[in-house]
Write a structure and sequence with these properties.
single chain, 358 residues, alpha+beta, Rossmann fold, D-amino Acid Aminotransferase, Chain A, domain 1, 3 domains, four-stranded antiparallel beta sheet, globular, binds adenosine monophosphate
């Protein structure tokens, strides 16, 4: 989707991916297939382009450092360094005065017990690195379950977070240029199933004051991290109406996909503009919209019934061109617009139901 937006603006696109025939590789002019650790290949790649960006934050820092010898990497390696490690990220946010879930670093039974005493139960224990979509997470309900969390860490560094009994989850996708211009998209409201994003709609059903606060919070984080490019801030809205930052992603985000069909500028065009030194586009939302993810299980009975989903002319289908449908894998999404968010949500959920698979 980034490559499509870049192409529309007249750019040529080179893709570097450990996998061949990647969704972006199908759109790009050049596709290089090599591991991130192949620094000679990375240097050769960076020499051939004018700017480097990414859509996956777990790229090793040695890789971005090697690329940065030949082309600007946006967001830069420092932003990646902070955001690819949950503890560094939470400490950074806390040190800069941003509200976060209470947390502790844990890697032993003793530290887990201490954290449970200080922060209470229930809690979520997450691995510090390589976690997303609930991967590497264990919910702990009682002291007795601390052992399960310790085992799940498999010796890796972990983070103990007090369980937030949130009212809802929202996210803000914001862009910042090297000149310091910032634009935040309207607040997205997200619902998850099995820790994976299921449905997003915008505008979020929150008071305007809170939406303003969320946008300011996101802008403040982009400035503090000196982001050039895009950053997504996932937040919890607590039952007493406060915002807590859950996680940062230094890239476009699944919750921002509805911008393609609902906003003057999509999140992908915004990323292109931000990393290529262009002024940012309008984030104005043209109509209420909702997005529903299409995960791999929908293919279990063969090809889903696309014509049925598209019977409603307000529904748009986006498929990513991934060859293999695995359970839980994000294969595409549907977007619907409507005169209200409720209507958009209803339309998109019904369209997905018409695919014929539960
Ligand atoms: P994450 O990978 O941190 O984004 O977590 C995935 C999902 O797990 C979140 O979107 C929440 O629904 C849930 N979750 C994560 N951390 C917490 C927490 N501290 N309290 C309650 N729910 C959480």
């Amino acid at each position: 989707m980034f490559a499509i937006a870049a192409r529309e603006l007249g750019y040529r696109i080179s893709i570097y991916s450990p996998e061949s025939d990647s969704p972006a590789g199908q759109i790009g002019d050049v596709e290089v297939t090599a591991p991130y650790e192949d620094l000679a290949k990375i240097r050769e790649f960076a020499r051939s382009v004018q700017v480097v960006t990414f859509e996956f934050e777990n790229v090793p820092s040695i890789t971005t450092e090697a690329a940065a010898e030949f082309a600007p990497v946006r967001p830069d390696g420092q932003v990646l360094h902070v955001t690819q490690h949950r503890l560094r990220e939470k400490r950074f946010l806390q040190d800069h005065g941003f509200p976060v879930t209470p947390f502790r670093a844990v890697s032993s039974r003793g530290e887990l017990e201490l954290a449970a005493r200080d922060l209470g139960l229930p809690a979520v224990v997450k691995t510090a690195s390589f976690g997303y979509d609930g991967k590497g997470q264990t919910k702990v309900r009682s002291e007795a379950e601390l052992g399960i969390a310790l085992e799940a860490l498999k010796g890796a560094e972990g983070i103990y977070e007090a369980f937030v009994d949130f009212e809802k989850e929202v996210s803000v996708v914001a862009a910042r240029t090297s000149a310091g211009q910032i634009a935040a998209f309207p607040v997205f409201e997200n619902s998850h199933a099995n820790h994976i994003l299921d449905v997003t709609f915008a505008p979020a059903r929150i008071p305007p004051r809170l939406a303003q606060e969320a946008a300011e919070l996101a802008s403040g984080i982009l400035e503090a991290l000196d982001v050039v490019g895009l950053l997504t801030v996932e937040m919890f809205v607590t039952r007493d109406g406060r915002l807590l930052v859950n996680e940062l992603a230094p890239r476009t985000h699944n919750s921002g996909h509805l911008t393609i069909d609902a906003c003057v500028t999509s999140q992908f065009e915004q990323q292109v503009r931000a990393v290529c030194g262009l002024p940012l586009g309008s984030i104005e939302q043209r109509s209420p919209a909702a997005m529903a993810n299409l995960l791999g299980h929908l293919w279990l009975g063969g090809e889903p019934n696309w014509p049925a989903a598209l019977e409603d002319p307000s529904v748009k289908l986006h498929l990513y061109g991934k060859r293999e449908a695995r359970i839980g894998r994000k294969m595409g999404h549907l977007t619907a617009t409507g005169s209200t968010t409720d209507e958009a949500v209803r339309r998109v959920v019904r369209a997905r139901e018409r695919l014929g698979i539960r």
